[in-house]
Design goal:
The chain is of the alpha+beta class. Helix content is 36%, strand content 18%. The two termini are 38 Å apart. The protein binds 2-acetamido-2-deoxy-beta-D-glucopyranose (4 copies).
Length: 354
């Protein structure tokens, strides 16, 4: 039911059932919508503007402590993510606990920590960018790409059907590759620190299996990219591999490793470097299998676990919004998109906004 339908329905029913129905939330917090009642106490009522007058007093005891940035949770009486401002269903301590400054400081601290822990990141001497030529990568140290997390990421890159609109399927060996990749990145300091940050900020419980399941759900569960289409996509495919649309354009594609490999294979032709900025950020335009990408931004030289960690944290903490922080004294903004607000977190996209 959309907002209007619900408001209209409640309005009509108000007229019909004026007498004898509870106008209080006492004993009714979180109960399903009861259209025979003149006001509501379900946790969507603030959104639909049909709460009983005492809803806040009786039902909104919940707090944003440890919940800043979490996705809409219908089991909770109030919400702690940015859309709650629009929908008017924020917990009363949302501003004080989840204010921009508090979150930016927390994000900046963890991102700096991840950067400093990213021992697998290529050193300056491991790769060369050509800012004047027709190829982006003039040199990449091949030994760097043989590090365990790189090697396992690269194995995943041919597991997907790049066409948007064509269903994805995984073979048993492809699923085993995903498991192997997750196990390998989970053992890195970058992912250990990500785990701790997400626990301390209430996004996951203190359980390695929950962390693993969360990454699996964020990145590898297939979902439909259009409302009526087949399950043709997942966060990993979109960000790390890239997708092709029927309109001959490229969707996603935010991994420097995939860029380098596809450029080396002759599948990708650089058009322009749009901007190159610090730390290690670049945006380019290119064609891939003959399809255009007008702007694709990514980190250069970072490890797969760093990219996955940064995009995962931003997706959880700043769902469907701009995730801003400072890194190496530079401002970084990452745009995140949830996919169609399905239950559970799944990354529709996440990319550098430069
Ligand atoms: C709240 O609304 C969402 C959709 O907007 C719906 O999926 C959910 O079931 C509703 N929850 C309650 C408690 O009414
Ligand atoms: C960059 O590309 C130009 C044009 O292709 C070429 O002349 C130059 O040698 C390249 N530089 C490096 C560092 O590879
Ligand atoms: C998680 O639990 C382990 C073992 O119970 C404990 O050592 C660790 O400090 C906990 N981590 C956090 C962030 O709470
Ligand atoms: C950031 O700026 C501060 C103050 O100018 C400086 O001390 C510090 O070394 C800088 N850090 C980095 C990583 O550049």
């Amino acid at each position: 039911m959309d907002v209007y339908a619900r408001v209209c329905l409640v309005f009509m029913l108000c007229g019909l059932f004026k007498e004898g129905q509870s106008d209080s939330c006492i004993g009714r917090c979180g109960q399903d919508l009861k259209t025979t009642f003149i006001c509501q106490c379900d946790y969507n009522c603030t959104r639909y503007n049909d709460c009983c007058n005492d809803f806040n007093a009786i039902c909104s005891s919940a707090t944003c402590s440890g919940r800043c940035g979490q996705s809409h949770d219908t089991t909770k009486p109030c919400q702690c993510n940015e859309p709650c401002v629009t929908y008017g269903d924020c917990c009363s301590d949302y501003q004080s606990l989840c204010s921009d400054t508090t979150i930016v400081d927390a994000l900046s601290a963890v991102m700096e920590d991840l950067w400093n822990s990213d021992t697998n990141r290529l050193r300056e001497s491991d790769y060369t960018i050509n800012t004047t030529g027709s190829r982006l990568f003039a040199y990449v140290n091949q030994a760097a790409l043989k590090k365990p997390t790189f090697e396992r990421l690269i194995r995943l890159l041919d597991n997907y059907n790049k066409m948007v609109g064509e269903a994805e399927q995984s073979t048993a060996s492809e699923l085993a590759e995903v498991e192997d990749f997750l196990n390998t990145i989970l053992a890195t300091p970058v992912m250990t620190k990500t785990f701790t940050f997400l626990i301390n900020n209430g996004h996951i419980t203190n359980s390695t299996s929950v962390f693993r399941d969360t990454l699996m759900e964020l990145w590898f569960n297939f979902y439909p990219r259009s409302r009526s289409g087949p399950s043709d996509s997942c966060g990993f495919e979109h960000i790390m591999v890239g997708e092709l649309k029927k309109t001959s354009t490229v969707s996603g594609f935010h991994s420097w490793i995939q860029f380098y490999l596809e450029e080396s294979n002759g599948n990708l032709i650089l058009e322009n470097i749009i901007i190159k900025t610090e730390p290690n950020m670049i945006a380019t335009s290119f064609s891939w299998h003959g399809n255009k990408k007008s702007k694709s931004a990514f980190f250069l030289g970072t490890s797969p676990e760093f990219d996955m960690a940064v995009y995962s944290i931003c997706s959880l903490v700043r769902c469907d919004s701009l995730c801003k922080f400072t890194l190496q004294n530079h401002t970084v903004s990452i745009q995140t998109w949830d996919i169609a607000h399905k239950s559970g977190y799944q990354i529709g996209s996440a990319y550098l906004s430069i």
